[in-house]
Amino acid sequence: MTDATSQSGPVLAADGTPLKKSLARALRLQKTRALMLIAPLLVFVMVSFIFPIAKMLFKSVENEIVVETLPLTVAELQNWNAESGALPDEALYAAFVADMVVAIDAKRHTRLGTRLNYEHTGMSSLFRKSGRKIKKLDPAADGPFKEKLIDIDKKWGDVTTWAVIKTHSVKITNGYFLNAIDMQRTPEGAQAQPEDKRILIKLFQRTLFMSLMITVSCILLGYPVAWLLANLPARTANILMILVLLPFWTSLLVRTSAWKVMLQQQGVINEVLVWIGLVADDARLVMINNQFGTIVAMTHILLPFMILPMYSVMQTIQPTYLRAAKSMGATNWTAFWRVYFPLSVPGIGAGSILVFILAIGYYITPEIVGGTKGVFISNRIAYHISSSLNWGLAAALGTILLGVVLLLYWCYDKIVGIDNVKLG
Amino acid sequence: MKTKLTALAVTTALVAPAAMAQEMTIVSWGGAYSKSQLKAYHEPYSAKSGVTIINDDSSAEAVAKLRAMNEAGNVTWDVVDVVAADAIRLCDEGLAMEIDADTQLAAAPDGTSASEDFGDLLVSDCFIPQIVYSTTFGYRTDLVGDTAPSTICDVFDTEAYPGKRALEKRPINNMEWALLCDGVAKGDVYDVLATPEGQDKALAKLGTIKDDVIWWSAGADTPQLLADGEVVMGSTYNGRLFAVIEEQKQPVAMLWDAQVFDLDGWIIPAGLSDERKAQALDYIMFATDTQRLADQAKYISYGPARASSAPLVGKHAELGIDMAPHMPTDPNNAQNTFLYNYEFWADYRDDIDAKFQAWLAK
Fold this sequence. Notes:
- The complex is a heterodimer.
- Chain A folds into two domains: 65-169, no CATH class; 200-420, MetI-like (MetI-like fold, Orthogonal Bundle).
- Chain A is 67% helix and 2% strand.
- Chain A has helices at 2-6, 19-58, 65-69, 71-77, 90-105, 109-117, 123-134, 146-152, 159-167, 175-180, 200-231, 234-245, 252-263, 268-275, 291-315, 319-327, 332-360, 364-369, 377-386, 391-415; strands spanning 183-186, 189-192.
- The radius of gyration of chain A is 32 Å and the shape is flat.
- Chain B is of the alpha/beta class.
- In chain B, helix 2 (31-49) links the parallel strand 2 and strand 3 (52-56).
- The chains are: A mainly alpha, B alpha/beta.
- Chains A and B meet through helix 6, helix 7 and helix 19 of A and helix 3, helix 4 and helix 14 of B.
């Protein structure tokens, strides 16, 4: 102890620099070299994967369009109180016309109309129709505008119109997230959507429930198959393996349509049941366009993702373990349950995570066979991406879905442990 | 799914005007529809100009893809086939170019200007109509008993016509039909539908047959369901029903009552280079003239959008039957029709769709 405290300076390397510094430099050099080696891959992943996802997720809060299109109006709106119930004064109408003339010239006003129409029905045509007339006004000479605008469309004389613009004039909005959980942004703060428009929470719950059902059915069906694959002689196992992989090589649409042919009321299964007399001709079973059909079709499609990880884990389980257990007096059941099953759990874990996460994001199969009770939240995301062009809401729904998956992953890690997952 | 007309282009490349690009990407719906365009427009155009046309079957996702391309600043499509509602949306978003019908489209052979020839069908500044199609009902002749359905309200009459019906999984058209059969006068349908009470009324009427409906989302679903006998009647596009009836000879007949006209046509994406824009405009000028629109009707039973094309519609190229009686616009078929109300649905689509989906999930 006395030696250490009596030493005056730091430990020096051979060239006289402090050892700590010299070590750090050597390490840094090594790290840089390693980083350079993976740099192309890292850049590729960043550019092609992380950056687009981050950009898409950012759309769920981004809302610059209102401020960008109507800068003067938004500034004027700050002086106006929506709750007063009185219309804004002339200054605001003048600012609005000035903004609109610029926006119409750049053809941005209809875009804003579309954006605001997501929040308040009628805004789309209001901006499109008024645009044609406002184009002819001169912001410098034609005032006052209040009467003129209300003349063009009486909605400009409606307090609600201005309240909607004011409510959604912030650059970063929580509006899309509120919409994603069946609420809406109003001048009085966040409020629930009217009852007859609440659908998204229900779809989130249904997506989780159905994905869970699909995962469980995959485990029940996949486990025996994986066991057979791992325990049969190589040649038979190979043939079986091809049967497992075969669906992989068939188009998803073909497989889904095949299930339609099988399950519909005039389909193969119903025909057979009627023919052998188990089901009356006028009481054919409804097995498709509902939850049942969706679960059957998706279980079939996702089954290989469950079997393959299970199989590769089961292959590593030594048969000697089972023999050892039996030699010590265990019955077949005990040997399986106490020895084999625990060893195969990492395979179940890996398969379940794969299947569950794939299932949660599926939309083609539910769209085709889901009917009304079997559609997933992804179907709504697809609708908002490709039909309504409400990418903000789609991004918010996607972000929530991503959050739910990460949360479940975290729970899985806490309960089972992520180290306990093996793909082989 | 890209079909290149390379061979054709090679043979004609020598006579091509040098200033134009040699290749263009045209986006359409695929299947029989793309084939009819290939025969009626692309092949003659390639022969005339030497341009290779690449066909891309992406029209179903065209709006989203065009927006993504526009954001990325790299538009790779030259001409895109979309339905009118999408064209309006693209025009609103600034993703499609505005077209002046009189200067940029061909006049009719008798000199009538293009804007007059297309008339009311020019529903957006960016849209060049091509065909009129209709969403209407087909029914199984062998499953409906002695009296075939004759009015739209037979769809809602499950006592006279028991069995499943196929309806599209969206509010558009279904809400109009429901109100019409709930006693609302045709002229008042959209005024009623604009109110929450009217929307509830329409959903309540649809509710009377909800248990008997199979909801479709792809145009091919209803023809398949009809052919399999899964449904006794169902709505779909009239061209699909034509294929079921005349090409596949299924026991199916058309119920033209209260058919809803809709338009399909071209847009040119905004943001093309001058050279490509000139090329796209040249193609459009050619492909939407009177003769070309009439030619397309030889291959598919959709009505040409120009008034001047109607008298030129002839026989089906392969079946040899007269096409005029199969056109939705034929006077016999068009006794009671709707025109898709673009303005209304551009405003109300998201609102009513949310209600409709919530109602479906109940």
